[in-house]
Amino acid sequence: MIASYVWPGGTEPMLWSGPDARVQVILIQPLFEEANRLRKTLVGVKRGLHALGFGVTLPDFPGTGESMTALQEKTLDDWRAALMSLVANRKSAQQSVILASFRGGALIDTCVESDGVWRLAPDTGARFLRDMSRTVSVRHNGLTNDEIYDHAGYPLPHDFISDLEAAAPELASKLRIARLVQDPNDADVRIAGAPLWRRSEPGEDPDLTQAIIDDISFWATQCATE
Amino acid sequence: MTTKSTIAPRLHAVLADVLGLSAARASELRPETGLFGSMPELDSMAVAGLLTEIEDMFRITIDDEDVSGDMLETVGSLTDYISRKLAQ
To answer: Closest Cα of chain A to B85: distance in Å?
Structure first.
């Protein structure tokens, strides 16, 4: 269902299924354009996990998605504060909380203690910035006549960019990293599929979505019962 | 040893993954297959995603000043570029 949550900076929208379930999974979206490209996958994962009996939250962080907050005024710490509020709310209801981060979501998933962390293809903030600034530089190189935006269409304030430049996924005590089969970086589990977050035309892959559901389910169950 | 013959199939897989090409279209990729300006899926946003994915998969760094219409003209020209970067 469409709901909202309160954090110190205001109220933000979220999708939340299974609020009474004992094990709650919070899905942390990728950064900016990658969140749009994975939106269908994320909603599919939310539905699939809920069908397995988990409570699942898909929050919009301040300035993203359906949020009415202006992104220009926000930093990564505001997203961390929003996540901390969400987790505190679940914990106060005596629920186990598992954080499942997609791509850049891994940059904020250790700001608060959870019962387990699962990540899909995490990367450093500097790499995400490079990808975004490359979109601009490709346009500057005369390969298109499209309008030039600040950062691939996202008007990011200087503080946000500095935060992102320095941000990297941090270790967590119960951490599982999933990557695609073709990704040369280290991982705890390999999932077959295409990097949908790199596609300029959002795509979907039901097999990839199911593999993500299965692995988050495995990890959430393991972490919640330990 | 990395040669163009070993780079090509990996590049074809990256192109198929990032551009969402069907298996049939991916199997038709040849050195002379046109990319930027010829392949409708390869717009400026797709170029950025493609280059970043190539960096990750081949573990190379693509300098912004290297990105040009010539480099992205065909599958062959992009393969040549990757081959040169791997040899550095």
So the answer is: 18
Label each residue of A177-212 as H, E or C.
EEEECCCCCCCCEEECCCCHHHCCCCCCCHHHHHHH
Beta-carbon separation of B49 and A130 below 8 A: no
User: B16–A194: do the CB atoms touch at under 8 Å?
Assistant: yes
Query: B34: domain CATH number?
Result: 1.10.1200.10
Comparing alpha-carbon positions, the chain B residue that sits nearest to A152 is: B45
Task: Give chain B's domain count.
Answer: 1
The pTM of the full predicted model, rounded to 2 decimals, is 0.90
From the number of C-beta atoms within 10 Å of its C-beta (0-12, 13-18, 19+), residue A124 rates as: middle
CATH topology of domain A2-125+171-225: Rossmann fold (3.40.50)
Contact A23, A98 (CB under 8 A): yes
Q: Where are the domains of chain A?
A: 2-125+171-225
> A56 to chain B, minimum CA–CA distance in Å?
29
In chain B, which residue's Cα lies nearest the Cα of A145? B44
What ipTM does the predicted assembly reach?
Answer: 0.84
pLDDT in tens, A182-198: 999 999 999 999 999 99
